[in-house]
Queue: 3 jobs
Job 1
Amino acid sequence: MTATQLAPVERPAYRDPNVLRWLGAYTASTTGDMVYHLALSWAAVQSGTPAQAGIVLALSAVMRALLMLFGGVVADRFGPRRVVISSDAVRCVVVLGVAALLALSTPGLWALAAIALVFGAVDALFMPAVGALPPRIAPSAQLGRVQGMRGLSYRISVLVGAPLGGLAVASGGPAAAFGAAGLLFAFSLPLLLALRLSPLPSDGEPREKTTALRDLTDGLRYLRGHRVLGPLVVVIALSDLGFVGPLNVGLALLSDARGWGAAGIGWILAGFGTGAGAASLLLTVRGRIPRAGRVLSWTIALGAVSIGALAYVPKLPVTVAVAVTVGLLAGLSGALCGALTQTECDPAYLGRVTSVTTFFSLGIAPLSFPLVGAAVGAWGPAPVFTACAAVCALGGIYGLSVKALRRAELPRS
């Protein structure tokens, strides 16, 4: 036999029990997150005015944004598995405690605000750690598949989480919904504890004692000097800044202006979800997309054209078809961004690098929501969608202009 014949065949990620355990834990945790947010929204609306409820819901996002970068430091210092397990354990205890509190009494908004702050802080630790975990549970050549599976998991959580939360609220009020969320977080814990982690090159090396601020500065310096990751973060920031406003705020205003109502928004979002799910399925099956850097830049640029087109299509069925295209392109580019980040990054810095990309996606980009809403109200959907699409396209064009990113590849099996 030749050496090639003796070499073990690498198992696809979707057949790896270790990856499937991680996927089950991630699905349960993400679904629990969806149920929790619905329960918090309902409880806040019942306990105060709409403005007060909005403040309660915003507290979690503000806390998450403020602590996100240091969450990456924590993930790199203590290991992503330990941080993810601790985060889900805290969320489980806190949410089940809220369920018991609501079942026995009627707490004021201050209690809900406190829960929102705690949840935001825990999310700031959880999200970078989740992004840093896949290279420890799957070979580098399988990280594209892992990102595709993660995308499918998220779509399932969106489809299941909202109806499950609504059913729980309808049957037992917010207490039942918080209880359901807590049980989902609890379900993730044994799966996470059963994970087998592969050692990385940086494991076991002596670590100099430094402050968290110095670790963060060191991570930002590493990111700025990296030939692929530095430009990739710019691409992610620009594409998210142009993407999230139209998809989160603009669609509701567009549907209202066209007279499609809430049903119209539902159909458009269903189209987007179908496209994004198809992209995740494609990456799960194929595992590797050749010329990943070039493909992600082109999909961002073409996706930007589709985003702009949403405001110029007068018929709902055609708009839904365009939304499918947006979801397909955005889903593929997002998964490729994640896979390239995990394969290009030194494992010692992966938590911090992930925290920076997440900070732009979930911390900075949502700040455009009020601006997009005000602009649509003043000038209508078409110019605003066009301007946002231009910002998004700029990210793709910039990616194509950077040689190292344009030539970046995912590992072969």
Job 2
Amino acid sequence: MRSRLEAYFRFAEHQTNWRAEILAGFTTFITMAYIIFVNPAILSQTGMPLAAVTASTCLCAACGSILMGLLANYPLALAPGMGLNVYFTYTVVKGMGVAWQTALGAVFLSGILFLLLTIGGVRQRLVGAIPHQLHAAVAGGIGLFLAFVGLVNSGIIVRSSVTAVTLGDLHQHSTQLAIFGVLLISILQAYRVKASMLLGVLGTLALGILAHQVRYQPGRFRPMAIRSTALRLDLRGALHLNLFDIIFVFLFVDLFDNIGTLVAVAEQAGLIAEDHTIPRLNRIFLADATSTVVGALAGTSTVTSYIESSAGVAAGGRSGVTAITTGVLFLAAIFVAPVAGNIPSFATAPALILVGALMLKGTSSIEWNEPRVAIPAFLILITIPLSYSIATGLAFGLISFAVLEVATGGFRRRHWMLYLLAVLFLVRFLLVPPL
């Protein structure tokens, strides 16, 4: 039985083993655990019961991650997406006055459209149309994004009314602990310790406990509270003409955020084929679309692939076992959410910073001497972290790449869908409000 599972998950091909995959799954979960409390905190402002959203968040992250691991055999974990949950709450429900049940109906319809686009092969062609030279730029841009998020979460970098950002207060104990975490993980990586990310997070957490910087606030979570949001979506209201633009936003933003995350994680894990294609791409998209549909039925906003999966890849994850492990932990978190959610940001931020550093290694393959490639690559690298949006960075890169191809007479060198993508991104900037 064990040998059959190893064959199914292609352990020999990926040069991995059970220990590495399970450790990677733990690492991914630890870096994603914040979503257990952040997502409910945001969605509960719509009037959705907090306990119900907490349970649905854990359940959807578990189902999505396990499905991705079993169906597509990729180390990609899924959960309700940040950004889209903000749009759901502040733009759709609070801003437009749409009931949360109707907004869930819009999420459900966007998931159904995703399934149809996947079955029709449209999403796969969209990924194939992205020039492979830009794959490394997307990975690098997301790496910078992760590092920036980690620096902000740790307090090393803070907002400034004068210079936008500046150095934080290094006398803060939480910031000092985060710096310790960065140093600890760096030293472990210098010694080629595969579990450096996980050990670094746990080591920093342990020091934080000893320094009395971890405040445990137990809460009462009732898994069956999910009945307050499950199957409460209003499809009839979502089909109203005025909500088609909302459905479009959920569909459009998730589509390109997912493409960016997928390319980055696959590139980092070495899972992109020699012909620059991504194996089993249809299964990846089927898992993602199905998870969004399940999420809407359970009572949460759009479920999508998480770039924190890069932490698990950096820890050695290469197969679906990593995602399955993460999913099982999310399932367990339904019952122990206070423990999972109390992992402080100073313990997880160092992992984000150093994963970001690791993701930059692929940028050496970019043709920096060729302006047609170098300029779009640079725009991707700089706009992803500064705009806090993978989709926006990808848009800047593809639009500029398409313009340069046309301007230099290379129009026929590229697939027509590249130019369709560029036009769609322009439409996004013109019609879709920023998240």
Job 3
Amino acid sequence: MKKMIDDRYVFRITDDTGMLQHATLGIPDPKEGYTSDDNARALIMAAMLYGRSPEWKYENLTARYLGFLLYAEKDRWFRNFMGYNRNFLEKRGSEDSFGRCLMALGCTAANPQMPGSIRDCCEKLLARTASSCSSLTCLKGKAYALVGLSLWKSKESLLYTQMLRDSIVDTYVQNRREDWRWFETTMTYCSAILPLALFCACGNEKNNCTIAAESLDFLLENTMKNGFFKPIGCKGWFVRGGSPSAYDEQPVEACCTMLACLKAYQTLGNKKYLQCAKSCFLWYTGQNSLHLSLIDPETGGCRDGLTKNGLNGNEGAESIICWLIAAITAEKEGWSQND
């Protein structure tokens, strides 16, 4: 199982600034620059690599990605897109990007295996930016932030955790129908973050877990096909009253759904969620609609998706991050690629 964790491509796509955003096939493309989105996700990945094997190279990676977020923060928010010249291309990033940054900071701050200087820095940045949650209007931005604040569990986070959780629940209640048990009228990018956030913030509120389970079940009804995971495609998504788009299938969907299912299993103890989590993991290695592995044995990278014509051969930041988070989680759970 140890052989499954191949970190070569991480060091290819990371430079002195952070993780580059895109690649042409297995070659990172500097002209596409960087994003806080990717470096926030990479912070979670690097902390997991360090937790698995506390080596200097992983501690240094964690510090580099965290340093990127320190530079990205301005006026209690985060800028997102950065050119290769280290200049940000915008004054303010999206709400989704802000939420992902808080999620990464909360995950890292709550990780007891991390060096104290890294955890303390995460907490300092969280304390500076958490108040901006009160201005969030985007549902998934709220969900990402809620995951991070739920893990942080500080006095500062309690107010915002309750506010974000209640807002997500209210949105679900407004949009739910008997034939559409979801938070919005369209299922789009990284849908599983919504039930995952509610599972993370269940607390003593039974209704939160009920909504988390009901919405996750609806997502799985539309993505678990013929015994394997088939994520909703990004070419059209899934609009209420229509059908899920078949392609393109993206690595981020498998990782996020896997984590939501695993959290559901840990919370509720229902083994169907454990099996679904395994199916999401195995999507990467060939148990998918095209029976193709997305892992590149030559580089250690992960292809960017499945299209109706086959593999998207590019190996961007999001793909390798999601694959390694999934693989490290699977290793920790004792799964194999043959489960």
